[in-house]
Amino acid sequence: MSQKVRIDGVKHAGASVFLGVDHCGNPCWTRNPERVMMWLCDGWRARFNQRREQRPHNVPVKDEAGGIVDWIKEPLGGPDVAGLLPDKEARLRCSWMAAVPSPILASTNKVESSEWFAGLKRKKTIGGRIPGFKSRHRGLGFVCWRNASRSGNAIFHKTGRKSGVVVITGMNPTRWRRPGEKLHWRIVIHVRVSQPIRPYTSVHVDWTHRTLVFVNMPLPLPRTGNGEVGIDRGCVHTLASSDGIFMDMPKPSKAELKRLKYLQRRMARQDRINGARGGRTAKFTSKRHQRTLIEFNILQGRIIRRRNDWIEKTTTTLAKANILIAMEDLDVQAMTRRPKPKPDPAKPGQYLHNGAKAKAGLNRSILSNNWSRLMKRLKDKMDANGGKLVIVPAAYTSQTCHKCGHVAKENRDSQAVFKCVECGYKANADVNAAKNILGRTLRKTGGAPPRTWRSRIGGPMKRQPPRRRSEVLSESGRRRESPGFSRGEDVKCTSQTTWSTPRPTCMRRSSTRPITTRTPIGCGARSTATASSPSRRRACWPTRGI
Hints:
Blueprint: E1 2-14, E2 17-21, E3 27-30, H1 33-52, E4 56-62, E5 68-75, H2 87-93, H3 102-126, E6 141-145, E7 155-160, E8 163-171, E9 184-192, E10 200-206, E11 211-216, E12 227-233, E13 239-241, E14 246-247, H4 254-278, H5 287-321, E15 322-329, H6 332-335, E16 342-343, E17 351-352, H7 356-369, H8 371-385, E18 388-393, E19 417-419, E20 426-428, H9 429-445, E21 471-473, E22 479-481, E23 501-502, E24 517-521, E25 525-529, E26 536-537
Parallel strand pairs: 12-15, 15-18
Antiparallel strand pairs: 1-9, 1-11, 2-3, 4-5, 6-10, 7-8, 8-9, 10-11, 12-13, 13-14, 16-17, 19-20, 21-22, 23-26, 24-25
Helix pairs in contact: 1-3, 4-5, 5-8
């Protein structure tokens, strides 16, 4: 979510901005706001390209005849590119970057990473080249993180009904102080607003088109209930709740699957023919291969957008209706890993059956349900809504009887049916696992209801009211007492930012036992709070930077 506004003008205030030294070693300063904005754009672009040139890419190794024999990884900037210097070291070696605000230089890391991986994903789906460098001729701009300290950066102030200013502050190095002036300077960007500016994390300045974009923080979802639910992820049913509700991700139709399979076979045949004609890279010059790839990407994109839409709607519904959601901890990357080959000791050079084909089908089913994206989007929405997503270990959740607590492999009568061999309890296997996940979460957070059995894994599950401090009769007949239960040089940040967002309390409404939680405050300090007085979450900004 973002808000785009128009830049009306830029003004400079404070000391003259240090721009670096010329070829003769003479320092250069300026008070021209247009020149300062161009200098900020150049500094951000240069730091972005320095990070981009460290990215590896595949380079072909050719023989004497010109044929490709192998592929090696090489930095995008070349084999002799130097390592990336920290921001502090880059300021010392490059004088014209010494006065660039730290939030501007630090923003290049996240922006470059997001653009790089988005470009690689786009290259795999629709083809094309790998992402390149930022060019001065394609547009000027920079990104600045919001730092709400006393001398903060990217701070928005409303000046009128449809006007406001964004203030970016900086500081010249002490050694390059201009005689008779202070060190601090600031750039005031006047913008035209048509609606209230929501809380934001950073600003993107497009100096070429004179626009500014506020990257907004996610808005909290209106809660419709205060429920507590456990969710089990599966292959047959994407999600199964402890309430007995199944949520299935939409699957592609038979016609779509048939068409996808046909296009994949056609692309493989075209790659084989093109490779025999002109080498490995000949497929990029084939018009037929390009048309097949475009059709495949259109169909595949339609299926992916349908899945993502279902994920967003389902997670929104769950976040609105529940204050506590429990899920099991699953390592999807390890679960979808290809099985290792088994060499045959009796026949050297041959391998035994390792179930790779069956494992490939299971991996395809797991990845098609997109378990990782489900949990990530649910966590983001629960955090924004004031709820809590609790992750518990997944050991024996599908083999434990929710009614009596008996753990046995024989309890799974089939993949979908759970039948306890101890008490005869029968239910859906996914629903039983979801109830076990919720039970573990409630015991972990202190809001578990009374139980009538003791778990064989995960510790005691029978909750009894605390015994009184009275004398009880021991097994030997004697009476004894029962124990009781008992940023850098250019920007100086002198204050910390406190976000006053209440921490949610995960406690059942029927329970009156206070919950003691620990919340990090500042740079590592801890405090305790009870459910009646929820703690406050604080974000600590560094007082010293690069």
